[in-house]
Every structure is written in structure tokens, then in C-alpha cells.
Amino acid sequence: MSQQQYGLVLSGGGAKGAFEMGVWKALRECDYSLGAVIGTSVGALNAAMIAQDDYEIALEFWSNLTINQVLDLNKKMTNTYVEQWSKESFDVFRNGFITALFSDGLDISPLRYNLTQLVSEEAIRNSSIRFGLVTVDITSLKPRQLMIENIPEGQLIDYLLASAALPIFQKQEIDGKTYLDGGFFDNVPINFMLEQNFNQIISVEFPAPGMRKWVRDKNAEIITINNSEYLGGIMNFDSRQIEQNIQLGYLDALKVFGVLDGKHFYLSTHKSNTFFRKFINTLGMPLSNQKQLQKMLTLLNLPADATQSDILSSLENLLRKTAFKNQPLGLSMLEIAGKSMGVFRLENYSIDFFIQAILKELNRLLDENLTLLDNPKIIGTFLTPSNNNFLRYNFITFYIVFLSIRSDLSPERMSTFLSKFSPDIALAMITIFYIHEIINH
Asked: How far are the Cα atoms of 26, 59, 269, 409 from residue 350, in angstroms, in the given order?
């Protein structure tokens, strides 16, 4: 095994497994060499597709996946509902449904059929990427951790279904033994991968029901990829959720691999960064728009003769009061502005395109909210001491009111006004000023 080969570990979690497809896309783009892939439950199904190394087929499967391709919500239940349950109270329906569910279990024959179309056992056995899975033999109450060479010929799909056999599914039997979802033993089988002599491991993990074993080898190099957003429920096969989960896996992995920067967004600072460099170099310098300069200095509680160093120091102090405090100032300010305005998150942005996205969203919000100032109560809310009504306002309200407020307010009223600004709102405001500065000059 070459020094650069990694073992990939995929956790279980039903429909959340779409996230692992996105991680695979990132692995392919970043040229990671995989020597083995081991999964539990849906992670085992994805692991088989990765070992087979046919990304396009796997992506097409996930992109078009519906609940009907996993489960046969069978006619028996449908007929029972029409003939009996629909005529009774909800309690009778619920109890009848649960009884039917746990006596027969949900029929996953559609999933078996789809796997026969999707998975080539021969390709996996001949693959340079070794494949493994985890399941539990409930006949003997023992876990089964199996590499492909330990799975009898012709039984790969049986064992894939055994690894993903949730208790609500019909019993999965192989050679007279009944199997249960591998998550009941180890939902993130890192130790099993270590036993295959891989010390460099990429582990894809997300919240899901199941057991998690402590990693035994403290010297292993483990790169962990977690989801940064909620992935939906394990049985949520909504196409939009699946598409989002694939994109999230892709972007979260690229960030872990060091390709993208950012805490909240996914930003490439290596290419198309002309505006970004101008933004960084201009940050802290006096603004050419004198009204905006005066308002910025007031917001930062700085005198009219403040230097670039003074302004940068005040911006850093504000940044320390935000969730972005451990990032460079310029990058953090852009992210705070983008987040404050609701710029779409799940996209691979070049940093210059991100600056344009901020401006585009600002202009859209301004168009939608220009009538705000027709309501005199809004400005009154900002000028009234200890009035909490302002908390319901979003960034664009603060921005419009801030631009419209008169500079000759008494110090007391100006102080009251500025006390309503959170560090994030203040930094987002100043970010917009500097973006306009670099665009206009």
C-alpha cells in the first residue's frame, strides 16, 4: 500500500447517505487515492458503489431516489386503510398501522431490485479499492465485520441489505440467520478499517441512530468530515433535500481538504481575487464618501482624525465579539455581510464572485424595502432608549435607517441609536461601505 492511500469510512443514516455522495465527488476532484472503503448501513451501500468506481451511475441513483425505490408501501396496508382504518378513529388507525408494521416489517424489495441493477459484485471483487461492511447476526447476537473476500460469492447484495436492516424492515435472512443494521454494533467502523492496516483514514460522520465505538489507535491520522447543516430525517427521501445533502457533502469535504476557506460560506480565495485584494488593501483607509466616513467613525466611536491603524484596531475589536473571531478580518467581514443579508450559502464561490453576490443581494433587498422609511415609527424605535422592538428588524432595516439618519443628532440620541447595533450588524454595514469604495474607485 502506498503511503498516500487512504481508508474511507462511511457511517449509516438512511437518506442522509446522500451527503457521502458529495464527499466522494470532492475526493475525486482532489485526487485522493483510496485503498479501502468500509461502511455501515447506507454507508455500506455507498461503499459498494465507491469500490465499483462508477460515480455517474451512483449519482444518478441518488439524484432520482424516492421512497418507492426503497420501500414497497404494500397493497395490504393500502387496502386495510381503505377498508378498515379510514372508517375508524385515528387511534385505531395508528395502533393498526404500528401492529402491521412490526409484525410484517416494511418490504424493501424495491431496494433489493435497485441494488441488483446498480451493483456489480464482480467489479467490486476485482476492484483495487477493498470493500467492507458491518452488520449484526441477531441469531448469535454477534457483530459481523466482513471484507469482500469474507462474503460468499453471489451473496454481496444479501449482505448489503443485512447491513442496512433496520428493525422496521422485513427480516433479512442469510443461510438461516437473521441480520440487523450494522449501526447496532458500530455506525462509524474506524476500528475495523484500522484492522485492515490503514493508518490514514477519512471518516464521514453525521448524527444518526446507532452505536459509536471509541477509536483504539491514538496514532491514526483521521480526517473527519461532518455535516455543517441538518440533513433531514433518515427516511426523508425528498428530492430537494437529497440534492442539498449531496452539495453539502461536496462543499464540507472541500473545506476540510483545504480547497475552500470560510466559516459559514465556501470561498475560494486563490483565483479571481482582484476585488478581494483591493478590499483587503483598502480596509481601514478613510472613505472617499464623507457622509459614510463620518457615520462609520461614529459607529466605531472614533474621532474625525482616526488613522487606518485606529480603524483596523476597532474593527478587530468588533470581530472578537462575533462567531467569526478566529478568521482573518477581511474574510470575516465579507462572510458576516453575506450572512446578514441572507446570501445563498451552498455554493462554491470565488471570492470576487462572492463580493458581487453580496452587492446583488443588497440591491435586491433595497428594492424590496425602500418604503420602510414611510413608517416614522421605525426611526422612533431606534432612537428610544431600551426599546426592544428593534430586535425584530433585519440587516436591511438597520442599513436603510443608518443611511437616512441625520448626522446632527444630539450625542445622547446618537449614542442611543448606535447602541442598537450588534457587532455583526456594524461590521456588515462597514463592509458594504468598503465594497462600494473599491467598486467606485
From this structure: 17, 25, 6, 41
- Pick the catalytic residue: 41, 163, 332, 340? 41
**d(Cα 361, Cα 433) in Å, to the nearest integer?**
15
Q: Whole-prediction pTM value?
A: 0.86
Where on the phi/psi map is residue 210: left (φ > 0), alpha (ψ -120 to 50), or beta? Answer: left
Residue 27 pLDDT grade (very low, low, confident, very high; cuts 50, 70, 90): very high
Average the pLDDT over each of 249-253, 318-322, 384-388 and give the range with the smallest value. Answer: 384-388
Query: For the purposes of burial, counting CB atoms within 10 Å of the CB of 344, is it exposed (0-12), middle (13-18) or buried (19 or more)?
Result: exposed
Cα separations (Å) of 56 from 141, 245, 370? 38, 17, 47
Is 293:243 a contact under the CB 8 Å cutoff?
no
Catalytic-labelled residue, pool 72, 158, 181, 186: 181
Question: Is 41 among the residues known to form the active site?
Answer: yes
- Alpha-carbon distance of 348 to 345, in angstroms, equals 9
Residue 147's H or E segment, with its range, is strand 142-147
What average pLDDT does this structure show over 275-287?
A: 94
DSSP structure class, residue 212 = -
First to last CA, the chain: 56
Task: Give strand pairing partners of 10.
Answer: 39, 204
Residue 285: name the closest of 314, 304, 312, 303 by CA.
Answer: 312
The residues facing 169 across adjacent strands are: 106
Cell numbers placing 440: 467606485
**Which residue, 51, 50, 42, 49, is CA-closest to 12?**
42
374 is an active site residue: no
pLDDT in tens, 66-101: 766 565 555 555 555 445 544 566 565 455 555 554
Between the ranges 104-113, 133-142, 238-247, where is the mean pLDDT highest? 238-247
pLDDT for position 75: 52
pLDDT at 391 over 70: no
Would you tell me how many other CB atoms lie within 10 Å of the CB of residue 56? 7
